[in-house]
Amino acid sequence: MFRNYLKIAWRNITTRKFYTFLNISGLAIAISCCIFIYLYTSYNLSFDTYHKQSKNIFRLVYNLKLDKMLYDKGSSYATYMGLKTEVPQVQQAAFSTDRQTLIINVDPHKRFKEENNISFTNADWFKLFSFQFIAGSANGLNVIDNAVLRENIARKYFGDANPIGKVLTINNRQIKVIGVIADAPYNTDLKSEIYLSFNSLRPLVPIYADKYFLTDMGNLSSKNSTFVLLNDAGQKEAVEKGIIGLAKRHNFGQALAYYSFKLLPLSEVHFDTRYEGVVQKSLLWNLATIGLLIISIAVFNYINLTVAQQTRRAAEIATRKVLGGSAKQLFMQFITESLLTSFIAAIAAFILVQLLLPVANLYLFGNEPVHVISYLNLSLFVGLVMLLVTIGTGVYPAWILSRISIAQALKTHSVNLSAGLGRRIMVVFQNTVTQSLMVCTLIIVLQVHYLKNTDVGFNRKAVITIPVGKLSDSQKEQLNNSLKSIPAVQSFSICYQPPSVDTRQSATVQYNNKTKWEAWPALFAIADSAYCQTFGLKITAGRNIRNRQPKPEFLVNETMASMLEKDPTNVLGKTLSAGDTKGTIVGVVKDFNVKSLIKPIEPAVLLEDKEHQTNLAIKLSGDHSSAAISAIQQQYQRILPDQLFSYQFVDEQLANLYNGESIQQKLILVAASVAIFISSLGLLGLVSLIALQRTKEIGIRKVLGATVSQISLMLSNDFLKMVLLAFIIASPLSWWIMSKWLQGFAYRIDISWWIFVSAGGLAIIVAILTVSFQSVKAAVANPVKSLRSE
Predict the structure, then answer these.
(1) What are the strands, taking DSSP E only, across 515-591?
(2) What CA–CA distances, in Å, run from 782 to 413, 694, 779?
(3) Are 345 and 385 in contact (CB under 8 A)?
(4) Residue 91 pLDDT exceeds 90
């Protein structure tokens, strides 16, 4: 029986080619959109879940309780050792110092600068996490001057040769490769590509030679990562209390009153943005909701077109019933047609995704390409979507059509169930979703543009930063003389970072020798006296700092000055202890953003610190910047022959602060475009069927003198009313949603009326163009042909 259903279904599908194309196109695009959302969501939800006992692995993080709560993912080596040896609930512990930058010599002719992809750790790291070794092992990482490489780095350094036993030269030390781990799986936040033995840290990175780095539990840094494996996940709170006891035993001191240490489950590391998580789970659920809405639009299209075609199938329904066909058999026939249509659409969607995934990774997810975690799970998801689409598209039309009586079916003019409330609701729903997505897209685009282009309080145009490491006084002098000789170089500064970055050092401050430290932290901008000129910072009171002073000098921003004194100028000449550095405030600088515009301006201190001034910031003139960079490179390589030249424009670095918002913008834009296209397909099909059902009426009107424009307006009028109704519903709905979204930004745009008018106007234009295509075609048809059968 099913075979007969399938044959008839195929015959009906191939007979109505135009409407079959509309249905399959809409469903295929909607299903492919759902597959993309599934891939993105499942990929992010799977991060680091594949590690053995991942449910019992936690990351140590801490909160700093001042006038507001501050969050940091960092830790200290002393805390790691204490957890490993003194807390009984901890089965295993692992520590690494990440985001290091080093020059690596493979041989005299091959040198590489590796930035932010190097970690210093020991064998405990690879006992805790399930990395797949394709050669060697990590056992030797407890010994100095050994390394484990990722597969792609090993291939970059040594080609197809066996890397085990090969030697790398770093800072004149011979580092032996003892292991290689596979590149996959990619769904991990543990992204280091070079793992050096922890005992090599202090010889290779002199800044860590401080004796307190290994022993001081308060030596917290966001570059340090500590993970623990508990005997049972339920022991989390007991371990957190144990850390407090650990801190007391290690003389953490009075500062313990301000700190709280937490264990963050490994499954939440990727999502908790307080601790530098990458993606918020709310974005994933929002995308899942959008996918559901888009598939609903396609399903409603199918239902509307199927029910609207009932006049053309009246003879078939009547004949089958006269020959003894039951309502159940008719129901199964229509369900089979829906199943076959859904199957074809699902196959087309699967092929479409395979073709477009590389393009999507390039355009949408360039910094974090999405990978297919499991083709089996993907196939099951596509099958589930196909089943749901079959139920959604088949049950209602099949139930409606199978219940038509023989008498009703034989009166073809009465079978045309009116485009009543149900169909109108579906069309209004489709257009409401489409217009809401259009409004959301516009607002997100405007907000991201605002974040990337608004005034941040400093000059970011044509400024480049170049890593130089710790420079000697002789090298600074040579750079100073060389750069001054390049005409396009307007100014330059040896600093730690540009004014606005995603990470920045901070500490509490003690003002004017008060007994108590301030209850808020100040962010540090570490630089020399040329920093203000290079970045266009304006000094509003006092003077600039001077280089190499015996007593440190500070600039503070206006926000910090007003927090310290009612009259901000009164801070001049007062003493300030910023972390471990005590000096004098010599000037006040106009406020500038030290972090992204998502957060408000915070108190900031600008000071000189030779240990951390490892970058060169250069302000270039607008013309001939490429020639200037070539000249700078020549001087750089002459003065620093052991370094490799690399640079980045500051405005590019600022744009990177808003990667999450940019991805969200692109995803919503794609979703809105898909919704518009699918809705247009539905409108095209409906107006085509309505024009077909009213062919004779149109012929009579034309004979009686109706013009083409009058007939087109008659056919379009009902649809335009529904689009306008959708606009009335979508406007307040999208305003409420986006107002909530914008509250997450300290600096944000105002939602203007023209945004809604633009979205509504675009929706009306698309509807008019879509509907006019068929209505004009029907209006210009020869009335003789339509009336001939009367």
Answers:
(1) 521-526, 539-542, 553-557, 575-578, 581-589
(2) 21, 14, 9
(3) no
(4) yes
CA 226 to chain centre: 25
| pLDDT given for residue 643 in this prediction | 84
> How far apart are alpha carbons 635 and 639 in whole angstroms?
6
Cβ 499 vs Cβ 456: under 8 Å: yes
- From CA 728, how far away is CA 164, in angstroms rounded? 68
Q: How far apart are CA 188 and CA 640, in angstroms?
A: 36
Binned at pLDDT 50, 70 and 90, residue 324 comes out as low
Question: Which residues lie closer than 8 Å to 149 by C-beta, 6 or more apart?
Answer: 157, 163, 177, 179, 180, 181, 193, 194, 195
Alpha helices (runs of H) in 364-502, residue ranges in sequence order: 375-402, 406-410, 412-415, 421-453, 473-484
**Total count of residues recorded for the chain:** 790
How many whole angstroms separate alpha carbon 371 and alpha carbon 670?
Answer: 19
Distance CA 544, CA 528 (A): 10
pLDDT per position as a tens digit, 141-168: 999 999 999 999 999 999 999 999 999 9
Of 668, 784, 7, nearest in space to 291 by CA = 668
Sequence-distant (≥ 6) Cβ neighbours of residue 154 within 8 angstroms: 163, 177, 180
Cα–Cα distance measured from residue 229 to residue 246, given in angstroms and rounded to the nearest whole number: 17
Strands of 496-579, DSSP E = 506-511, 521-526, 539-542, 553-557, 575-578
- At residue 654, the pLDDT reads 77
Higher pLDDT among residues 296 and 323, named by residue: 296
Task: Give 75's DSSP letter.
Answer: B
Query: What are the boundaries of each domain within the chain?
Result: 2-42+280-451+659-787, 57-269, 463-655
User: Mean pLDDT lowest for which of 282-286, 376-380, 455-459?
Assistant: 455-459
User: Phi and psi (nearest 5°) for 404?
Assistant: -70, 135
Q: Kindly indicate the confidence band of residue 191, based on its pLDDT and cuts at 50, 70 and 90.
A: confident
Reported as half-sphere exposure (CB side, CA atoms, 13 A), residue 518 has a value of 21
Helix (H, G, I), strand (E, B) or coil at 553: strand
Question: Do residues 586 and 542 make contact, with C-beta atoms less than 8 angstroms apart?
Answer: yes
Looking at residue 324, the DSSP 8-state letter turns out to be T
DSSP3 helix / strand / coil % (the chain, rounded to 5): 55, 20, 30
**Residue 15: pLDDT above 70?**
yes
Place of tokens 């801490």: 62
Q: Could you tell me the end-to-end alpha-carbon distance of the chain, in angstroms, rounded to an integer?
A: 39
Which amino acid appears at position 353 of this protein? V
More confident residue, 711 or 171: 171
Dihedral Cα 242, 243, 244, 247, nearest 10 deg: 130
Q: Are 389 and 295 in contact (CB under 8 A)?
A: yes
Q: Are 119 and 96 in contact (CB under 8 A)?
A: yes
Supply angle C-alpha 280, 593, 547, rounded to 5.
130
Q: What pLDDT does 120 receive?
A: 95
Q: Is the pLDDT of residue 39 over 70?
A: yes
* pLDDT at site 424: 79
How would you list the strands of the sheet with 615-620, edge to edge? 489-495, 615-620, 463-467, 648-649
CA 272 to chain centre: 13
Tokens of 233: 């996940």
Q: Which whole-number Å values give the CA distances from 404 to 314, 316, 565, 645, 751, in the listed order?
A: 9, 11, 83, 78, 50
Task: Give the C-alpha separation, 265 to 288, whole Å.
Answer: 24
* Cis amide leading into 185 (omega within 30): yes
Q: Which of 289-293, 338-342, 415-419, 466-470 has the lowest mean pLDDT?
A: 415-419
Write down the number of H helices and E strands in the chain: 26, 22
pLDDT on residue 252: 77
Would you place residue 626 in the very low, low, confident or very high pLDDT band (cuts 50, 70, 90)? Answer: confident
Of 542, 596, 554, nearest in space to 579 by CA: 554
